[in-house]
Design a protein that fits this description.
Blueprint (H helix, E strand, L loop, with lengths): L8 H6 L12 E8 L3 H12 L4 E4 L15 E2 L7 H8 L1 H24 L7 E2 L1 E5 L6 H13 L4 E4 L1 H8 L7 E4 L3 E2 L2 H13 L4 E3 L4 E6 L4 E5 L4 E9 L5 H4 L6 E10 L12 E5 L6 E4 L5 E8 L4 H6 L1 H15 L7 E11 L6 E5 L2 E8 L5 H16 L7 H4 L4
Parallel strand pairs: 1-2, 1-12, 2-9, 5-14, 12-19
Antiparallel strand pairs: 3-8, 4-8, 5-7, 6-7, 10-11, 11-12, 13-16, 13-17, 14-15, 15-16, 18-19
Helix pairs in contact: 2-7, 2-11, 3-4, 4-11
Bound molecules: flavin-adenine dinucleotide.
Length: about 400
Amino acid sequence: MDLKSNEPFWLVKNGLLSSYPSLKQNEQCEVLIIGAGITGSLIAHQMLAEGYKTILIDKREICNGSTSATTSMLQYEIDVPLYKLKQQVGAEGAIASYRACSDSIDQLEKISKKIKSKAGFQRKDSLYFASKKKDVSWLKKEYAARKKAGLEVIWLEPKHVEKKYHLQKTYGAIWSKQGASVDAFNLAHELLEFNAKKGLKIFDKTEMKSVKYHPDFNEVLLASGFTIKADKIIYCIGYESKNLINENFVQLKSTFAMVSEQDQITHKNFSNTLFWNTDEPYLYLRSTDDNRILMGGGDEDFQDPEKRDQLLNQKEKKIIKAYNKVLPSQPFYTDFVWAGTFGETKDGLPYIGEHKKFKNSYFVLGFGGNGITFSVTGMEMTAAYLKNKKHHLTEYFKFGR
Ligand SMILES: Cc1cc2nc3c(=O)[nH]c(=O)nc-3n(C[C@H](O)[C@H](O)[C@H](O)COP(=O)(O)OP(=O)(O)OC[C@H]3O[C@@H](n4cnc5c(N)ncnc54)[C@H](O)[C@@H]3O)c2cc1C
């Protein structure tokens, strides 16, 4: 599966941050993590903190999957609005899922401080604005649901949105206190470097081909012919899980993102806010720590990389047009445009937990616009599972729900 087009900004900006060897012998460990993107890196960080003898493998170069293409908005807000999610999974699960994403942002800040990260973690407010008049009634309903759940939100009328953010043609917005952004590609590399020094073994260009399940352990056969014996496997293989699991649990899509030239941000409140609107697919905007405008949207319901990459020019124009409609006073000059694979679930929630066909194994698959915050929640969930404990989100994030 080709997960991204050639020039995601983070790959160009950061270059090859670190390189690891491929595995050239048989190995053995307590925990084998398959997939070294932001999810695998976070899970590895947790496993090392828990004291497990851990190996991490990736078939590509480290972090060259979706993690190199992500726009890394860290939101407590899930793609499915809270009032709708309550109808889908019940109030308890919906509120707990929103809270988990909110806690993940705090957790990522702590992790960033602990590893002395230079990946630009920055706390931000969030503004969810109505792009059409007809969206105001449900957005107000959403505002009420969030307020009732104790989330820190304020309703802003269009004139306030314009005054504070210079946004035109909005019909009102939910302002939220909680949000952040980061360079996830850099952060994942930093996490791996930090944990490699603590004993984490990392191998890139090392592909899992098949697994033989024994009662107490798994024997992983690699493309190279070598094997890894592991008490437990944690699959952090992102959208390529679709190749491994037959059920229809995620819909793969294509999504588009772009970043402006540097020093294009003229509005003070732009840099400390994440923006997204009520369009379907939604437009989203944020600043980068090197003072660029980063934005994305234009999702398409197919995953074919060739078809996706042919749309790059057209999508660039369309997304800029949508941007200019709301923020004409801060022009956007493109530096990089890219596309990536993206996954949507029916309830906007991830799949974190066991699958009956994969013994002694767990999956951490953070899908949707909250992929990264869900992966953070996966840290405490997998830690609990390895101790044979349940987690309060197990029911909501499990396969076959
Ligand atoms: C354009 C774009 C914008 C996005 N914006 C946001 C956002 O603003 N906020 C947010 O939270 N999320 C966002 N996402 C989603 C987010 O990027 C993903 O949730 C996240 O990157 C997934 O990370 P991962 O580590 O799970 O997957 P990946 O980074 O894809 O890592 C999985 C790894 O598994 C490896 N692998 C697969 N199969 C095997 C195998 N058999 N053997 C060995 N290795 C294997 C792959 O090589 C890959 O490196 C966005 C995604 C895209 C594409």
